Amino acid sequence: MFKRIFLLFLLFSIPINADTKITHSPTKAFILSGLFPGAGQYYNKKYIKSISFFSVETISLGLSIFYNNKYKETGEVKYFDRRNKFIPIFIMTWAYSLLDAYVDAHFFFIDQKKISIISKENIIYCRVNFKF
């Protein structure tokens, strides 16, 4: 498992030549996020999000499997209930990570300094600056 993680991070750390056209694919981010927890966020260079999604998805899936095995061994209902609490957490986090990776990939080349949110007199304004 560690070798897979290491190879995945090594794959994304390969530098790109300055001569090549830089592209950032939302579809690639979506697929990576679906295959491996946090990989789409890592592809988008959102490292803290990547670690967060990886942690939540791995822990919730691991606990679901753990309680499922306990339920199969003992047949106690408490393990069945605990398993059923962690499965929706995994599914919702996984779905959110897919959408997050896809949307972040679309906004990858947008300068965050050009977007501002202003609050005046209980009204929130959003300003986006474009330069043509």
Please describe what this structure looks like.
The protein has 5 helices and 2 strands; from the N terminus they run H-H-H-H-H-E-E. It has 132 residues and is mainly alpha-helical. The protein has a domain at 25-109. A two-stranded antiparallel ribbon has the order 1-2. Helix 2 (26-35) packs antiparallel against helix 5 and helix 4 (47-74) runs antiparallel to helix 5 (77-106). Residues 16-20 have low confidence and may be disordered.
Evaluate the radius of gyration. 20 Å
Assembly state: single chain
Which whole number gives the mean pLDDT? 80
Largest sheet: 2 strands, antiparallel
**Largest sheet, spatial ordering of strands:** 1-2
Uncertain residue ranges: 16-20
Order of helices and strands: HHHHHEE
Shape: elongated
Brief sketch in words of this structure:
This protein has helices spanning 2-12, 26-35, 39-43, 47-74, 77-106, and strands at residues 115-120, 123-128. The protein has 132 residues and is mainly alpha-helical.
